[in-house]
Amino acid sequence: MPILAAPDGTRLAYHLRGRGEPLVVLPGGPMRASAYLGDLGGLAAHRRLILLDPRGTGGSACPADPSTYRCDRQVDDVEALRVHLGLERMDLLGHSAGGSLATLYAARHPRRVARLALVTAALRPLGLSPTAADRSAAARLRSGEPWFEKAYPVLAAWLAGEGEYHPALTPFFYGRWDEAADAHAGAEEEQTNEEAADRYFAEAAFDPAATRAALRALTAPVLVLAGALDGGPTPALARRAAEAFGHAEFAVQPGAGHYPWLDDPRWFTRRVAAFLDGTALPSAK
Fold first, then answer.
1. CATH assignment of 3-130+176-277?
2. What pLDDT digit, counting tens, does each position of 197-210 carry?
3. pTM for the full model?
4. Fewer Cβ in 10 A, N or C end of the chain?
5. In what order do the strands lie in the sheet with 248-253?
6. Where are the domains of the chain?
7. How far apart are CA 183 and CA 11, in angstroms?
């Protein structure tokens, strides 16, 4: 497991999978170790994945200053990784909360990004967040599922602020709720630094107007990929995010939730690999 030092001295770990041109991958959670990403549905057959464990997760050390868990403070970690790898410019993929970090990195270091893929990304740096109505509407798309009748009232209460997150809600995040999805979800708690997660999305981390202005300097192609069944972001919200970039394409993966590489690995890999290679896909949405 390779290690590098962040500017503040925190030891950061990353993992290598696959062969080919490098793709730096930032996990979500927030503050979940990169293990849950696996090989991104087979994307490692097309690219050498460089999967960063955020500070305080997986093989990375906890920082001396817990305030550095904040999303914007971790931009320096991503830049340190680029320098460590000796890349003049890098292809970058951010999933979920990692998409927020990838967006802030692109805003601060636009000339260091060759291509940027935002996969079911959290869009707070752009001032976009799913509403309770967004999540409820997405959830109702699952009304034909055998677990829906018991899960939906729990979701409604959670969205109304009447309870904490309950495991009954987890199937809403997966396009297919099966044994593989259950096992994937079951590993989340042990892979996540909860203290860090509470700090990651601090309000002070984001200045949407400034971020949007800075992104005007980004000339790199951008892919904003949403899951058709995802409630955060919904496809409509992700489409609005794509409009913030000068050279963006937007895609919706049919039948996918928040982890699209699990729901249909072949579709996901084909679409993302084509984007990274600059190959047109006429049938892609």
1. 3.40.50.1820
2. 999 999 999 999 99
3. 0.96
4. N
5. 3-5, 11-17, 48-52, 22-26, 90-95, 113-119, 222-227, 248-253
6. 3-130+176-277
7. 29
